[in-house]
Design a protein that fits this description.
Shape: globular
Bound molecules: adenosine-5'-diphosphate, magnesium ion
CATH class of the largest domain: Alpha Beta
CATH superfamily of the largest domain: P-loop containing nucleotide triphosphate hydrolases
Distance between the termini: 78 Å
Number of domains: 5
Helix content: 40-55%
Number of helices: 36
Length: 727
């Protein structure tokens, strides 16, 4: 036996200052020391780096660490170097100049370098290969190894060249590490690296402290996000968007709403990016709005929420990104805004790509859609995706478990699915299976002549929306599985065959309904997404009490929809109560009305709830940057003609924009400007005109006032009027 347990712990203490190993770390380190190939699957924050850093310090020669990100490398090297007097860690990448490279090479030659970080691009450079051939290599560590697989969320072609290069440089044991890998990706990695016999260490991927929720993405999504952030004041959070443009827009909108937010994406200047990162770590900024470029290597332990503005392209990406919340084991709220339309957009983006890549991309998207739309426990879905069984009935920490949907019997449907999979010789994917069950004569079906099959259309009487949940839940229950080699082909398991022999009850939940087109959802919707369940149940209790006292049925007091809207909008006085659906003048006069608003008021105060009415959310109809800039300018009382100049607009064009803003419901105060450019009498005349007129038409106003006032003046005062009266 090489190293004993005793001195591994001592070494851990000596080099890292930690008292004990986390999870499988010790066994992993031992395995590397024993010279065996190692495969490590450990969630983000689990402590993967130590698994190769510690053995490298204890072994002769230099360990080569292949890592995808230059920024990460520098960071890790700094950490290691700080622990030891000698120069034990170095990196080799395109950011170094010739002199620095020579220094690194000298250190490696003299055996001073224990850890050498290289990017795959640098590793494959001929001159580096030649040099490394002469070095003594202790082992190779491949960090973020999922980059090897096209089935991962972050595929990098140059990772595929690692094995041939290792052969050239000289063989040594390999340790591959990743935070996310499905069966498929895991198989890919091992095959590609030629380490199919590697000892595998897999930690559970369950993160019990993370709360998962998927909300419908409505046109009020910005408002929903602002509201969410205001309900968690001072907390650190990350919001992921898919496009850089959206990142910048949303960051602007958040700032316009007094939220300390910054944008982060790969298109920004690198100095600015590292400044933003630092500000986030130092809590100068609360919220980072970012593309997926942000996060790898971010080690802020107390990120309290991760919001996905757009649905991610894969569940692996989703897991990785949400994984950045609550690394300290504390609260971590993971909220995703989902609209089917976003998926269609992503699907479209893939059209230009090679067919094989499109196919992979689409299947990953389908998995994400399944996750978003399901009513099954999200933790169960997620862990199942990563090949882990979660057998608790209720995780108590996801939206689906907190608000469970009624189950329905799916026995007969499962029988149909299983029989179909067999009939199709286990050779098709779920969308094909569904087409077959529904009796759709698609091109593909006809090409296989399957429309002639006896079972064709066996489930055509059912709602087509039922089949996806049946198949997915059959996968989770283990009656079906997806083939690892030919990803996506549905196979029946022995449990599935047993079920067919003697079918029993199979309770399922139907999927959730998501709107397809959030941009055209009516304003009213989305309210449900912000329903406060605690308040709602308190209101129901109060209703029960009142109903008993008055001897009238509860629905006569207030209907459910009214209570729900109260638990969404938080009316705190009778005036506001009138805006609630189903509450008219008469109801407000009822003696109990006051009790309800009092309860809501107390609740808001006790729970620090920022009400929508208080928020005055600054979103604009078409959330263009231009409008946001204009609103900010007006807030800072910049003269309107200066704003127009700064934005390269004619004054009339600026007025068009400002009108659009106030007409879409945002209040703007332009008095500072009116007072400067108009005399009071004119303002009053025009204002009075609009107060009395039954139209806001500009033509009509010009007819009436055109002799004394200019068109611009009329428009300016009309803006003031609309803003004050209508908004
Ligand atoms: P991963 O690469 O798996 O995401 P890291 O290697 O970056 O995780 O480690 C995450 C954090 O855990 C780091 O701050 C690291 O210092 C800390 N850590 C690792 N091992 C231990 C240990 N045995 N005891 C305490 N902290 C540890
Ligand atoms: Mg890591």
């Amino acid at each position: 036996m090489p190293k004993t347990k005793m001195n591994l712990t001592a070494a851990l203490k000596k080099y890292f200052g930690f008292d004990k190993f986390k999870g499988d770390q010790e066994a992993i380190v031992q395995n590397v020391l024993d010279g065996k190939d190692t495969f490590v699957l450990m969630p983000t924050g689990g402590g993967k780096s130590l698994c190769y850093q510690l053995p490298s310090l204890l072994m002769d020669g230099t360990a080569i660490v292949i890592s995808p990100l230059i920024a990460l490398m520098k960071n890790q090297v700094d950490v290691i170097s700080a622990m030891s007097e000698e120069g034990t860690a170095h990196y080799l990448n395109s950011s170094l100049n010739k002199a620095a490279i020579d220094q690194v090479k000298a250190d490696v030659k003299e055996g001073r370098t224990k850890l050498l970080y290289v990017a795959p691009e640098s590793l494959t450079k001929e001159e580096n290969v030649e040099f490394l051939k002469q070095a003594k290599i202790s082992f190779y560590a491949i960090d973020e190894a999922h980059c090897i697989s096209e089935w991962g969320h972050d595929f990098r072609p140059e990772y595929r060249r690692i094995r041939p290069i290792i052969n050239e440089i000289g063989n040594a044991p390999i340790i591959a590490l990743t935070a996310t890998a499905t069966d498929k990706v895991r198989t890919d990695i091992k095959k590609n690296l030629g380490i199919t016999d590697a000892v595998e260490f897999k930690s559970s991927f369950n993160r019990p402290n993370l709360y998962y929720e998927v909300r419908p993405k409505t046109k009020d999504v910005d408002k929903d996000i602002i509201k969410f952030i205001k309900q968690h004041p001072g907390k650190s959070g990350i919001i992921y968007c898919l496009s850089r443009k959206k990142v910048e827009e949303l960051a602007e909108i958040l700032r316009a709403n007094d939220i300390k937010a910054q944008a982060y994406h790969a298109g920004l200047d690198s100095a600015l990016r590292s400044q933003t990162q630092d500000d986030f770590l130092m809590e100068q900024i609360d919220v980072i709005v970012a593309t997926i470029a942000f996060g790898m290597g971010i080690d802020k332990p107390d990120v309290r929420f991760v919001i996905h503005y757009d649905i991610p392209k894969s569940l692996e990406g989703y897991y990785q990104e949400t994984g950045r919340a609550g690394r300290d084991g504390g609260e971590g709220l993971c909220i995703t805004f989902y609209a089917n339309k976003d998926l269609q957009k992503l699907d479209k983006f893939m059209e230009g790509k090679p067919v094989a890549e499109q196919d992979i991309g689409r299947q990953l998207l389908q998995e994400t859609a399944a996750y978003a739309e399901t009513s099954v426990c999200r933790r169960k879905m997620l862990l199942h995706y990563f090949g882990e069984i979660y057998d608790q009935d209720n995780c108590h920490n996801c939206d689906n478990c907190l608000h469970p949907k009624t189950k329905i019997e799916g026995k007969d449907q499962l029988v149909i699915v299983l029989n179909t999979v067999i009939a199709l010789k286990e050779n098709f994917r779920s969308d094909y299976v569904i087409d077959f069950i529904m009796g759709r004569e698609t091109e593909d079906i006809i090409a296989h002549n399957h429309q002639e099959h006896d079972l064709f259309g066996a489930g055509e009487d059912e709602d087509e929306k039922l089949w996806n949940p049946v198949i997915r839940q059959a996968l989770i229950a283990g009656y079906l599985k997806k083939d690892v080699e030919n990803y996506g082909l549905l196979k029946i398991t022995s449990a599935g065959k047993k079920f067919l022999k003697k079918p029993e009850s199979f309770m399922i939940v139907e999927d959730k309904e998501f709107n397809d087109d959030y941009e055209s959802t009516p304003e009213q919707e989305g309210g449900t997404s912000a329903l406060d369940p605690v308040l709602n149940s308190m209101l129901k209790d109060l209703r029960k009490k009142v109903s008993k006292k008055m001897g009238r049925p509860p629905y006569v007091i207030f209907q459910d929809v009214s209570l729900e809207q109260m638990a969404t909008d938080y009316p705190v006085n009778l005036e506001e109560l009138k805006n609630i659906q189903g509450v008219g003048e008469g109801k407000v006069k009822q003696p109990y009305a006051q009790e309800f608003v009092d309860l809501i008021k107390r609740y808001c105060e006790e729970n620090d709830i920022t009400r929508q009415a208080d928020l005055r959310v600054r979103t604009v109809a078409k959330k263009s940057m231009l409008k946001v800039k204009i609103i900010q300018g007006i807030d800072r009382q910049v003269a309107l003609d200066d704003i127009a100049n700064a934005q390269g607009l004619e004054f009339e064009e600026l007025l068009d924009e400002v009108e659009a803003i106030v007409y879409s419901g945002t209040k703007l105060n332009i008095d500072y400007f009116l007072d400067e450019v108009m005399d009071e009498d004119h303002i009053d005349d025009i204002y009075d005109y609009f107060s009395e007129s039954d139209t806001d038409s500009l033509e009509a106003a010009i007819d009436e006032l055109g002799d004394e006032c200019s068109e611009d003046e009329i428009r300016l005062v009309r803006i003031k009027f609309i803003s004050e009266m209508a908004n």
